[in-house]
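Many introductory courses stop at the sequence. We go one step further.
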Amino acid sequence: MSTVKFSRSAQLTWEGTVVGGAGRIAAGTGAFDSGATFPTLRGERPQTTTPEELLAASHATCFGIGLRSVIAREGGTAARIVVVATITAEKGPDGIRIRSSHLEGTIHSLQGVDEKSLSSIGHVVEKECTISAAIKNSVEITHHLSTSTESISPG
């Protein structure tokens, strides 16, 4: 397979000081446009995001799509996949540093793949996920996968 090069972009517009100011972050594709703030211990303003939350969103998206792909390669199907990524950071003398990313995945109505193979599937997904590959040398990455037979409502 030949190498395919592509780019994605997002634009931040910021006004004011770091702590007192605010901005907007928008995807180049128009997929999202959100308020942005500096992460504080007091909490963020409603309807705003932070770099750490955006990383969590990226990691959940990448891992979830990868999970769907690996399950399909293994001959399986799922009605729905839900992945929650939790980024943990610390603020110290060197500033804010991301320490870990934990991925919690639930596979609804898994068929064609033995549930016992989920751990190995998770390791393959972690290895292939673009975001995991980008952060793996500086951030601890953990994951847990489970299945659910709960009925899924449309929407």
